[in-house]
Amino acid sequence: MNQSPGNNKISTAIFISGRGSNLKSLVNFSKKKTSPIHINLIISNTKKAKGLKYADLNKIQKKIINFKKKNSAEKNILNMLNKKKINFICLAGFMKVLSKKFISKFPGKIINIHPSLLPKYKGLNTHLRVLQNNEKFSGCTVHHVNKHIDAGEIIMQKKIKISKNETVNSLSKKILMEEHKLYPKAISKVFLV
Fold it and tell me: Which residues are catalytic?
């Protein structure tokens, strides 16, 4: 794996689509001496992603890629990743599905965080489905990305208890707080060779 010059850290890109709260926690994590990653690039599929402000605040290069034509979008991204010598990709609320071909260029080097206890509740509207099914527990999962949605090998999970009067909003907030702690831990685990 290529490492960023001068700091022996893995050159990493973060892909986002939204508010970027996981991005923020990963940026903070990357600044620690003990962190194995250095964030060199932030990619978003929309300029409306609020998380892009963290790129500006931390002087990290950002790119907005239109996914209307997926093939050319992915080609663009691959060119950028090669130029920046990126070796590791973290999906943090990235709402586009990467192609099998794209994923095959980074075998075992793309990870994602998902707001459920996988393999349960893959895909969207996780919290709503969890509550509709009267689950007692939910949580979050960091997993490797493969060609199937939310189906890659699980790296780490955090389980939380669902309260009696839980709402989608309260559950979402609870789990997000856990995501911010779990994602850095899972990255450290990936690089514990």
Answer: 114
